[in-house]
């Protein structure tokens, strides 16, 4: 069983992935954590080698992570590369898009210094522009989407579990 969470930063991917792992008794992988473990702090990668270099590392590690069972929380920009879109859509994982309003996303990331793409501008307007720019990419990879603003992480995890159970019934 594989569940992949995608969505903009601050949408709840990390929090929900941990809950899903506990509730479903599955291992949890956070792609950003894997990148940090393998290549160092994300802001340092951006500063020293640029976003293109970072995205290549992200792609390579995404492919490795998709070979494993469990819950995978991707980075907010993972679906912006076409080869990542192909990897996510070709995989048999349930891909869930977690969406948050820009106000919610800004409040959740709260000037986190590990967010290099928001380093210069943490405004709601800038976040909305980034969400809009990525929206089609997110839509292209997801099997299910949840607007997270109105739900607790526990409620979101339960919605995903219901979807997994429904899909397993259809297959089995």
Automatic annotation (TrEMBL):
Substrate binds at residues 32, 55, 76, 134. One of its GO terms (biological process) is amino acid biosynthetic process. It comes from the Bacteria. It catalyses: shikimate + ATP = 3-phosphoshikimate + ADP + H(+). GO terms for cellular component: cytosol. Its cofactor is Mg(2+). InterPro entries: P-loop_NTPase, Shikimate/glucono_kinase, Shikimate_kinase/TSH1. Gene3D superfamilies: P-loop containing nucleotide triphosphate hydrolases (3.40.50.300). Keywords: Amino-acid biosynthesis, Aromatic amino acid biosynthesis, ATP-binding, Cytoplasm, Kinase, Magnesium, Metal-binding, Nucleotide-binding, Transferase. Pathway: Metabolic intermediate biosynthesis; chorismate biosynthesis; chorismate from D-erythrose 4-phosphate and phosphoenolpyruvate: step 5/7. GO terms for molecular function: ATP binding; magnesium ion binding; shikimate kinase activity. It is found in: Cytoplasm. ATP binds at residues 10-15, 115. Mg(2+) binds at residue 14. Binds 1 Mg(2+) ion per subunit. Pfam families: SKI. Its EC number is 2.7.1.71. Belongs to the shikimate kinase family. HAMAP family: Shikimate_kinase. Catalyzes the specific phosphorylation of the 3-hydroxyl group of shikimic acid using ATP as a cosubstrate. Monomer. This is Shikimate kinase. It comes from Limosilactobacillus gastricus DSM 16045.
């Amino acid at each position: 069983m594989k569940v992949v969470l995608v969505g903009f930063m601050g949408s709840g991917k990390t929090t929900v992935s941990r809950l899903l792992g506990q509730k479903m008794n599955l291992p949890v992988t956070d792609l950003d954590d894997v990148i940090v473990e393998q290549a160092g702090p994300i802001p340092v990668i951006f500063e020293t080698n640029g976003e293109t270099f970072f995205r290549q590392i992200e792609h390579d590690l995404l492919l490795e992570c998709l070979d494993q069972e469990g819950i995978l929380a991707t980075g907010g920009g993972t679906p912006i590369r076409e080869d990542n879109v192909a990897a996510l859509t070709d995989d048999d994982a349930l891909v869930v898009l977690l969406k948050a309003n820009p106000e919610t996303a800004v409040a959740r990331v709260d000037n986190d210094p590990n967010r290099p793409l928001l380093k210069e501008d943490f405004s709601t307007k800038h976040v909305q522009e980034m969400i809009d720019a990525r929206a089609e990419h997110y839509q292209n990879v997801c099997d299910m989407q949840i607007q997270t603003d109105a739900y607790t992480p526990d409620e979101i995890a339960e919605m995903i579990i219901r979807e997994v159970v429904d899909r397993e019934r259809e297959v089995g």
